[in-house]
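Late entry, written up from scratch paper. The run itself happened at the end of the previous shift, but nothing got recorded in the book at the time, so transcribing now.
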Amino acid sequence: MAILLTKKAEDKVKEILSEQPEPYAGLRIQVVGGGCSGFSYRMGFDKNFSDQSDQIFEFDGLKVFIDKQSLLYMDGAEVDYVEGLHGAGFKFNNPNSTGSCGCGSSFSV
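Output as recorded:
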């Protein structure tokens, strides 16, 4: 199982991480229940991770933690950072998603 962070997303996460007032081990990505379509993504910095319950990915020194349950829904997903007329943010391109809502922040499988 794998995920991909585009170079643009990786650079943005590193930039935000460098601005944090305290040290973090890396970025955590989770799939949580909720949102218009049933599931949504959650991203945040984390100080802790577990070799047993997390899959750890590394992108040029940046560690990304995804719990194994979330990874079932994200295998093959790409995380990108986009900037446009409607603002900027992280975008998930998930081949496992069968539908999403108009807001683009939730999905179904």
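Residues 16 and 45 are 10 Å apart (CA to CA).
(Scratch paper discarded after transcription.)
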